[in-house]
Write a structure and sequence with these properties.
By secondary structure, the protein is an alpha+beta fold. 29% of the residues lie in helices and 23% in strands. The chain has a ten-stranded antiparallel sheet with strand order 14-13-12-11-20-19-18-17-16-15. It has a six-stranded antiparallel sheet with strand order 2-1-10-9-8-7, with helices on both faces. A two-stranded antiparallel sheet has the order 3-4. Strand 13 and strand 14 form a beta hairpin.
Length: 534
């Protein structure tokens, strides 16, 4: 039987839900003037959607990668399991994994509790460079070194939340998604989501979940409503109040909004009384506790604090302005929200080279260094593959087939072969590709530049990234391919640099290593040399 969609109630103007349309309009102006790549936002007050915007090609019905917002969903599963007496915050973590821990003689494991995983105070320090395509993730966690005693120090460790995901499987006999399906997803009208897993089918826990913007808004609305969705209780009021509290001191973190307290996979917010689910590249589900309001945002902004600072200029002010009586509706705002476009494709040009390269195979040399560091050249940008468990890579055997206003691009990556359409008339073409075992919806466009350069833009819509490939065709069948991406490798590297410096310690050595991050684009996205096969 087909599931009935459950949508949050909408209003005809922001003011009818207690939100200033004027401030929403100013927010839209700021997005456009700053160039900050926000893909969607949804503003909810008093349980009603006051304003929502999806910037093309992103749509309300397509899931978006959530990154570390996945942690909040995993923690929600733990909260529900606690409500059902399947486990408790003070259970010893080792007791769930006797097949691994009985062989490890370490007294600190006796002090590692479920609450320490939830609050990022486990004391365990797995390497960020571990190859997650191999071996047992749980065994790797338990054998990892300690950075401190359990409960003593906050340190943001993804593997903590994977262990929580594995615990759900242990106590319920179900993976997290199956456990949450009747308890959360079905009740909220959320389709069974894609979530990356390990080789045993256990969700990554801390990353890898894809949700629609409204799905995220609904989950945060349940927290705001003390565990209720309408009249249906999803989890206890006790959990709804406990999870967002400050349980760990994260004051040593770098961003102002990352140092005011950490709860159970929820961050406290600095400029107002509230908390948020927070994912890399600026995915946010924010609860404004004093205003009965929720804001859900999907983005592609590496500097999360930059994006949050923009949000804080308009929220909670959008609620305050209405409460002050500034309620004159904004004409044209509804149409503006519905017709937002993230980017425009360039208009078509053509080239005499189309007949020459039509249907021929272009072979590219494999970059050994990229394979050594674990990031082989992929049609997926670094921002997409950074957290994946099965990375695609090594673009090869590229074939173009041209038509009047578009072309197809075919290529190999590892054992996967894909063909996608590319618009050459200033309009995107939509297709699908499968890389690293994951299917992506993509929109693509291309443009001939200077007669001998074909520049392609490929955007996997569920993700935050865009790949640009600049093909330059030279004499004797030689081809140069210059890759770039959005968000840029440089912005990602410089955003990661402070955390890496903290991880390896201070001093001149650390400063020297971090200074190398500025060269990341040349390392991760070097020019690739190819040749047209005769």
């Amino acid at each position: 039987m087909e599931k009935t969609a459950i949508s949050l109630p909408r209003v005809s103007s922001p003011e009818k839900a207690g939100v200033s349309g004027k401030v929403i309009n100013e927010f839209m102006d700021a997005i456009e003037s700053t160039g900050i790549e926000i893909h969607s936002f949804m503003v909810i007050r008093y349980g009603k959607v006051a304003a929502e915007c999806f910037r093309a090609p992103f749509t309300p019905n397509r899931p978006h990668t959530m990154y570390s917002i996945s942690k909040t969903v995993t923690a929600t599963a733990i909260g529900i399991a606690i409500d059902e007496n399947l486990l408790s915050l003070d259970d010893k973590v080792r007791d769930f994994f006797p097949e691994i821990t009985e062989k490890i003689k370490d007294e600190r494991l006796n002090r590692l509790l479920v609450r320490h995983l939830l609050t990022m105070t486990s004391g365990k320090d797995p390497s960020v460079f571990a190859d997650k395509t191999k071996g047992s993730w749980a065994e790797y966690f338990f054998k990892a070194p300690w950075y401190n005693e359990p409960g003593e120090e906050f340190k943001y460790i993804n593997e903590n939340i994977y262990i929580l995901s594995a615990i759900i499987k242990k106590v319920s006999g179900q993976c997290v998604r199956d456990f949450l399906k009747p308890r959360l997803f079905d009740v909220l009208g959320i389709d069974y989501p894609f979530w990356e897993t390990d080789s045993e089918g256990i969700e990554a826990g801390g990353w890898g979940l894809y949700l629609k913007t409204e799905d995220l808004a609904k989950i945060m609305l349940v927290y705001s409503n003390k565990g209720l969705f309408g009249d249906t209780r999803i989890f206890s009021e006790k959990w709804a109040e406990f999870a967002p509290l400050k349980h760990a001191d994260n004051s040593e973190e770098f961003d102002s909004d990352a140092k005011v307290g950490y709860g159970c996979c929820l961050w406290r917010c600095a400029p107002f009384n509230g908390y948020r689910a927070d994912g890399m590249f600026s995915q946010f589900g924010i609860v404004f506790q004093d205003y009965d309001a929720v804001l859900a945002v999907t983005s592609a902004v590496a500097e999360a604090q930059v994006c949050r600072d923009l949000l804080w200029k308009f929220f909670p002010r959008a609620f305050e302005e209405f409460d002050k009586g500034n309620i004159s509706p904004e004409e044209g705002l509804y149409d503006r929200l519905k017709s937002a476009v993230l980017e425009q494709a360039d208009r078509m040009t053509d080239s005499y080279l189309e007949e020459i390269i039509e249907g021929k195979t272009i072979h590219f040399r494999k970059k050994i260094l990229l394979n050594i560091v674990g990031f082989p050249m992929s049609m997926l940008p670094l921002a997409v593959v950074y957290m994946t468990t099965d990375r695609a890579g090594n673009i090869d055997n590229v074939i173009f087939r041209f038509k009047k206003t578009d072309c197809t691009l075919t290529w190999d990556e590892g054992d996967e072969n894909n063909t996608i359409p590319v618009g050459l008339d200033g309009r995107y073409r939509y297709g699908t590709m499968t890389l690293g075992g994951i299917e992506y919806k993509v929109c693509s466009t291309g443009l001939w530049v200077e007669g001998d350069r074909l520049v392609l833009q490929v955007r996997p819509i569920e993700t935050i990234g865009k790949r640009t490939l600049d093909f330059k065709f030279k004499a004797n069948g030689k081809v140069l391919m210059r890759p770039s991406s959005t968000p840029s490798v440089y912005s990602i590297a410089m955003n990661l640099a402070p955390g890496f410096k903290k991880m390896i310690g201070g001093g001149k050595f650390a400063d020297g290593i971090v200074s190398l991050f500025r060269f990341a684009p040349n390392i991760i996205e070097p020019t690739h040399k190819g040749k047209i096969k005769s």
